[in-house]
Amino acid sequence: MFNIALFGCGRIGKVHAVNIAAHPNTQIKAVIDPYHEGAVQLANQYGATVMSVDEAMADKDIHAVCICSATDTHADLIEQAALAGKAIFCEKPIDLSLSRVAACLEVVDNAGVKLLVGFNRRYDPQFRTLRELFDSGAVGKAETLVITSRDPSPPPAEYVRVSGGIFRDMSIHDLDMARFILGEDPISVSAHGSCLVDPAIGEAGDIDSAVVILRFPSGAMANIINSRRSGYGYDQRIELHGSKGMLKAGNVREHLVEHWGDEHCSSAKPQNFFLERYKEAYIDEWQHFVDVLEGKAEPQCSGIDGELALELADAALESLQQHKTVELK
Amino acid sequence: MFNIALFGCGRIGKVHAVNIAAHPNTQIKAVIDPYHEGAVQLANQYGATVMSVDEAMADKDIHAVCICSATDTHADLIEQAALAGKAIFCEKPIDLSLSRVAACLEVVDNAGVKLLVGFNRRYDPQFRTLRELFDSGAVGKAETLVITSRDPSPPPAEYVRVSGGIFRDMSIHDLDMARFILGEDPISVSAHGSCLVDPAIGEAGDIDSAVVILRFPSGAMANIINSRRSGYGYDQRIELHGSKGMLKAGNVREHLVEHWGDEHCSSAKPQNFFLERYKEAYIDEWQHFVDVLEGKAEPQCSGIDGELALELADAALESLQQHKTVELK
Amino acid sequence: MFNIALFGCGRIGKVHAVNIAAHPNTQIKAVIDPYHEGAVQLANQYGATVMSVDEAMADKDIHAVCICSATDTHADLIEQAALAGKAIFCEKPIDLSLSRVAACLEVVDNAGVKLLVGFNRRYDPQFRTLRELFDSGAVGKAETLVITSRDPSPPPAEYVRVSGGIFRDMSIHDLDMARFILGEDPISVSAHGSCLVDPAIGEAGDIDSAVVILRFPSGAMANIINSRRSGYGYDQRIELHGSKGMLKAGNVREHLVEHWGDEHCSSAKPQNFFLERYKEAYIDEWQHFVDVLEGKAEPQCSGIDGELALELADAALESLQQHKTVELK
Amino acid sequence: MFNIALFGCGRIGKVHAVNIAAHPNTQIKAVIDPYHEGAVQLANQYGATVMSVDEAMADKDIHAVCICSATDTHADLIEQAALAGKAIFCEKPIDLSLSRVAACLEVVDNAGVKLLVGFNRRYDPQFRTLRELFDSGAVGKAETLVITSRDPSPPPAEYVRVSGGIFRDMSIHDLDMARFILGEDPISVSAHGSCLVDPAIGEAGDIDSAVVILRFPSGAMANIINSRRSGYGYDQRIELHGSKGMLKAGNVREHLVEHWGDEHCSSAKPQNFFLERYKEAYIDEWQHFVDVLEGKAEPQCSGIDGELALELADAALESLQQHKTVELK
């Protein structure tokens, strides 16, 4: 049984809490959150102890940390956990600054601990199936990858202000997914965007609608289509066109009941947001982390993946601002 | 060029008029309808002559008749045309009385003319494809055939009163389709029904919702589901379950544009009724009749098919009234 | 925390074991199975004790029983549990004999214990949604219900021999579903069938392909289409046609990735069988039983539902044998 | 009845020949093609006369020309027809050189004749419906338009060499479609591409896989995804994301029959290529030209539309070559 210290009791912390507790080989030993009341509540629910960061890091019975706290605490916590010799699961991103990420990963490397970065979509059964079919040769050589990724509704402008911008906050998942599916690192990035959904997002210095084009050494291209608002739920689709056809992962709908009436035939919308859509992915992601803890697997998505996705996001921002394609390396 | 005498200027007469005129090898020579004004209008539109029945039958330049008049005139017109040596296309049914049908077909046989009975759905490209795939062995041996056939909205009670009832008027198409797809003649019929859509239909002595089960010598069963009202257009579907899987012909929708909104995802309803849904079938049906005229084909759906479908409809009525399965032959 | 005695360690016993153990308010206290080795293994896995039937019934710490043993033990175990004052969850059927069922239910009634009969499909999220939409008036008054229910592949003839026949073993789920969806009890049953899938089933005195028609007091009809073999997975669909349109619950596919290639476009088959298809239903069913244990709910599917479904299955058999519609009551 | 001179007897000339002949108000009077044998055959089929260009232009009985000849003859024929006072239908493009197009359109303007440029997809019922729904406010303000347009298989390299390149030959349809749907003219173009399908295309100086991003004054973006090969038929889809949801026009399949088997569920591929997919569009396009001839409509797609689409194609090429976004005007 592995004892886990859970950092952060917010929405995503609660998702992981459920999965840690439900897994036969892990349990929550410590809960750490500056919001004391929330920490107490979660700790009580799972029979855990509320601790300070230092207490948790010093506790020899804690085997691993699950970092779900605010983004600007990730890199510090990773470093402390690494120095304390604990295995690390950290929600994306490691940090919003590439240099901070690099420094952090050096600490992790030197400590020789395992680090799994939480790009949850890599574990989604639909996208996994698509990648497996691609790997099995179902569509031959990859040519064009089209990722549609649209949130149901825009976040508040205050969130946008600290988010690092749409590329680092939202597209980063899709940039990672492109690398994950194609198994290549891009050689150029071209980004385009508009503020169409909410003027407050524009006033916060960001855009809310984006298109990003990646080119890969093989010549394959990835086309990412993002929006902060779909109007019809969480739109998460992937199309992979290859030399022998197409693979296409559709949305997961709220249910499968259709209504045929005198106006039209209607079916359910896509599941509303990531908590529903990626519920199974979070479970499988935690299973993978347990496999890492048990020495059965190496992290499928490690620090370098977090770093490369951030590099692509930064390049997208540069491309957007300079109206040109940014070459990488 | 074959000259055609068109009997009947109603809805279905107009459908055939368009197709006769559009075919490079046929033209409308005569139009016959007791409703003189309608006949004149149609004749003018196609450069044809308004004639009486006798004139048309006597006209040596008329090679074939297309009978789209009221049901109770079909058998008489078929006989007159047969005696006049003309090839005959007749809308279903030949007559609502089995004995009248038998007598009429004897006249046709003795005259040695070609008779094509208009079960239009046999020419529908979707159902044709299904049958061709079945014939090619795509699902092995037939086991269960499910035909869903629902009109968009109920006819007026006055129509119901002279229609011969739902089995002879509506289910007859599906009874023929079951024979067409499976290539067998049923050995028993079981029918069930209710009057749910419009009480006036019940008062007219008919039902508006029906289920018919046919059993075939091979053991295969056909399950026909009928209603005078779908509420969402013309519902015309076929599922054929066989020893190696299923073939399934879906509805043809009004268009292929989906709308995804905050309530649900909607797509277009099925095409509204037979004029839209079977537009292509009517064209292909007429092409087949021209092939018959040209000696290139024998009627795929002849008098005997009309007779057998009516026999099944009569058996369905008997089954409904007696609450038991009716064995045939 | 409710302590549960689990009777039967077979396939379905294991499904419930997982759900009992995963529920925060229930745990497996005792495992009972004549196959001792299986009982030991399951007991060890969940920290439970292997007991005899009498030991389990006598154990005051056991609050409820979960009966997943062979069909012919159900009624006896229900009676013993009732006399021991334990709440009862029993997999369908209570018994294959109607008189045995009636006697058993009298014992339960006299004991005043709660009995939940396991018609798992009632808890399926898809069918629940369909029923909720119907109850909310989405399609008006019910007219025709079409239930397609086809197993992926036929059971061995030995199983068929003790199964009670297709109606009592397989259609019974659909007969219950018809009552569940429509909220009415049928007034007549008409059944039709063939042995097409496996001659050994016929030699065992059963059929493997069936169609059952139910009529309800409202005039609504239910049309059940069963087969022991689909050839493409577990085909579980429901269509409800009402006065204002149709509701349609489709199959749950293995995944949502399509492959478009030079032959055709392909998508995944329906999930293979009930363990996958009704995984969530079993969890929700157990949650409902816990609600019953906690006094928060009355059994949604009690002894009388088990009895009525069996009555319908018996009537179907009578109808099949006598080639007539069987009137009920 | 309008007499039409048909220039060009190739694949697309034959499409128009059928539609001209089938329309009640038009007939083919003259056929002009340097390939004499083809001209004779087509002329015979439709009761027309083979003429030289000059004869046709001089014939006072010819009301309009339908130009389906080789691309490099279009501008000359348009000018001659304009000077001869004939209404003009011309297949796209007017010419591959923007300056030649401008000169040609000046001649047309001065002559005051009607010119309809054949961007056939504007008349496709699916895309029309999408635009009508958008115009009716179904999805609010446009945000992102995604056009997927992939040919079934690549053309021979010889064709590529004279085609003007993928942007002028293939993407031009999608560039026009973006203008047609959104009702705006782009302010910038960014293009990306690879040669992945056939090295011979690369040797011919072209690419075969392209992504083009257009930005519009409203902030809306259009994302065009092109390939010379789909591997599964003619992939023609449009998604329009707006402030209130999405409209999505799917592919038209070869038929609607699904096969469910032990491997997967399969449905028919998209119709193979433009002759099938846009059959109805060509008919509606010709109807629109007849409306123009009859003074009932102004050309919905005139010379300026042809010119603007070419401008966008040229800008795409410039963007591709210079790795930057090209601003327009």
Automatic annotation (TrEMBL), chains A, B, C, D:
SUPFAM superfamilies: Glyceraldehyde-3-phosphate dehydrogenase-like, C-terminal domain, NAD(P)-binding Rossmann-fold domains. One of its GO terms (molecular function) is nucleotide binding. The keyword Protein transport does not apply. Residues 127-247 form the GFO/IDH/MocA-like oxidoreductase domain. NCBIfam families: myo_inos_iolG (TIGR04380). It comes from the Bacteria. InterPro entries: Gfo/Idh/MocA-like_OxRdtase_N (IPR000683), GFO_IDH_MocA-like_dom (IPR055170), Myo_inos_IolG (IPR030827), NAD(P)-bd_dom_sf (IPR036291). Keywords: Oxidoreductase. This is Inositol 2-dehydrogenase. PANTHER family: BINDING ROSSMANN FOLD OXIDOREDUCTASE, PUTATIVE (AFU_ORTHOLOGUE AFUA_2G10240)-RELATED, NAD(P)-BINDING ROSSMANN-FOLD SUPERFAMILY PROTEIN-RELATED. Residues 2-119 form the Gfo/Idh/MocA-like oxidoreductase N-terminal domain. Belongs to the Gfo/Idh/MocA family. The keyword Oxidoreductase applies.
